[in-house]
Amino acid sequence: MKLAERLLDGDRRACARLISMVENNDKEAIEIIKELYKHTGNAHVIGITGPPGGGKSTLTDKLAKALRKENKKVGIIAVDPTSPFTGGSILGDRVRMSDLALDSGVFIRSMGTRGHLGGLSKATQGAVKVLDIFGCDYIFIETVGVGQSEVDIVKTADTVVLIMVPGLGDDIQAIKAGTMEIGDIFAVNKSDLFGAPKTATEIKMMLDMNPNMERKPPVLQVIATKNEGMDNLVDEIKKHMSYMQEANKLQKRRESNAKTEIIKLAEEEIISLILRKNETMGLLDDIAKGVAMREIDPYSARDKILDSIKDITI
Amino acid sequence: MKLAERLLDGDRRACARLISMVENNDKEAIEIIKELYKHTGNAHVIGITGPPGGGKSTLTDKLAKALRKENKKVGIIAVDPTSPFTGGSILGDRVRMSDLALDSGVFIRSMGTRGHLGGLSKATQGAVKVLDIFGCDYIFIETVGVGQSEVDIVKTADTVVLIMVPGLGDDIQAIKAGTMEIGDIFAVNKSDLFGAPKTATEIKMMLDMNPNMERKPPVLQVIATKNEGMDNLVDEIKKHMSYMQEANKLQKRRESNAKTEIIKLAEEEIISLILRKNETMGLLDDIAKGVAMREIDPYSARDKILDSIKDITI
Asked: Which of A51, A115, A161, A237 is most buried per CB count within 10 Å?
């Protein structure tokens, strides 16, 4: 059976193989996704992010387990753009610790940086499509690190859960503008720690200050390690999806995400075009030499490069 | 007097203003840099990076002070792509703590994220050019954070100093492949801490394992807070520049950096072209709608967008 059919059929090994191919920017994988794209859109994609030490992976595990009780098929993508100075050990722990890996109804995949952050975002979005075709009802995109790039990746989900922890205290105001806005649901994890209600109140107050919100995101207190409040969180995640569908917002959000994705894909294609053209022409090398010699400035150099690709078939 | 002339004349306020304009992607600033680009290339650009807690900003301060004793004009760009979850407090400290800010022969500028990481890299490279025209003999690009994007920014320097600290111990092996390779000089800072010689030895051993190195980077032990070993480090920085010039490597490195910069600029221009075109045509909106409805896949959507800009003037 062909890889495409096996994936549609829910074959785990085909799924794993296709995600690897997507990570390697394999052309056959892209063709398969193109062919099967009409089978996507059924999964509820949930982004999970928050500050370091928030217990994101434990919480994701518990959510997955709660959904497994309903016999839902679950995919988890752990996104980890490894710091250049710490290696990938965190990610290793993530995979080792999860007993979910033994559950055939759950597909877990870790995504590290492949040279480039843009590449990580692309690989993640490709993996979401593969898991969607594979038949997942729910797909979690969980960030291990917490940089801007991860926030951008999580934004591509249908529902974004922002995990907070008590003791963040006054620092909530230090959370970068634009980050709070991506949260559809707030979960104050480790709520057995001192200060949890205060943190929850502070989040609510911050949300109240935003007059442009059509829907007030719920703020929950949970303890993922003790499985407390997780059913509640699952309910809120489902409620958010219903809201999005009823208010016709799901379509809007997916359109906006599609737009971002198309632009990124176009960007990448054009760059590869410039590099291919350069290989045959040596133009870029010559111009770069001129820039280094201060014979031409980089901005005029850019214009020359753009001129050079104007008349070739894209 | 015009802004361009004032900058060439070494006017600090003109310099500050132009860097701000560059950060805001101002067209007039680009025109000024184009006009004055032939006056760049004289500064020795030094990148400083390393793991968190390495004492990067203290070390940069001491290096700047050592160079000030020789009456050199120094620029410092502190690059801080603020984490979405921690705000910009580190950067504030950086600026407050530095008494260098009072020295008229030193120009310090902090660069935070402006919405986009690509933007940060571009703003930093623009600022380097402005400081070069301004007449700086040395320009430090110091990273506050330590993500992959910062490493990429630091790579654009003529000389890269990687700061390490004792106690990193076995973790040196956890440093991401490709990161060690960017170091032209290694400085083990805080060398009064236990384990400093061991760390230095480990770095040397790792460097020995790389057979492709034409020049073995020196590994120094320093204590920036006590100003110990800093003259040595300054010497090594200068020696590296001499080596680069004599071996004709400076030109090569600057060519390669120019190439990366030109490609990024072209990328950005093309995206802005796609967005401008979209405004008048609504094409991107329609196609994104189609993708969200699963009527067309994102890869075919990309091809349509690329087709649409083929015949317009870039």
From this structure: A161
